[in-house]
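Our platform keeps sequence and structure together, in a single record for each protein. Such a record has a labelled line for the sequence and another for the backbone structure tokens. Nothing more is needed to write down the fold, since each code stands for a local backbone conformation. For reference, a complete record is included directly beneath this paragraph:
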Amino acid sequence: MIDELPSVTGVPSVTAAQMAEADRAAVDELGISTEMLMENAARQVALACREMLGSVEGRRIVCLAGTGNNGGDALAAARRLHVWGAEVRCVATAAREGLRGELNKRQHDILERIGIPITGVDAARLEEADLIVDGLLGYSVRGAPRGDAELLIREADRSHLPIVAVDLPSGLDPDSGEPLGIAIRAAATVTLALPKAGLMRTASRSLVGELLLADIGIPPAIYDRFGIDARRCFVDGDLVRVIDPLARIHRRTA
């Protein structure tokens, strides 16, 4: 089903440092709230799940949530998928008090009020799902995954279920594309705003799966300060397949 999305070639990429600055500029200089960016990201992740499954109605989806904004994206995506008829539950690497930032805690609280289950790693039961959403670690990752994040990455990979990664597969270095000891092997990666440089490198190809680029509302002018022209990324749609025919990242050509 993902093949039905519009495709783009020649998409620029950003380093983790550049993306951090772009996020900061969007929030601090333009006044685009982090909540707006998170809601946009969550919708795109949920859309990718629907593209992969054809329909999410009645399908069992487990969202893995870390303590940072990727975890918040996954929690918000769970709400979207619930509204669309999926049987959703979340597995978090930390209790509410361990989440970073009030926005992530708010996403957690909304799900509790809706009645979407949020469990710890000891009740993950990933083998009971049809699809996994990976929101464990983001582009600010430092060092190899450890603790509950490592346990969930290993369990997700052992499940052999399709995995949709939020922004980049957890455990992948955002710049080099090398796994940091252990990394999620995704069927599809929904990279947000622009691809992280590591996603376009040879080392990451077996882990990224289909590379989807999602518009979350960061204006292209933000990237001008890096000499990056991102003005034509979303002219054919706000969720697109990234095709690199020279590197053969995907089997289909443009």
Remarks:
- The chain has one domain: 2-242.
- The chain is about 30% helix and 15% strand.
- The first helix runs from residue 16 to 28.
- Helices lie at 16-28, 34-53, 69-83, 102-114, 147-159, 205-208.
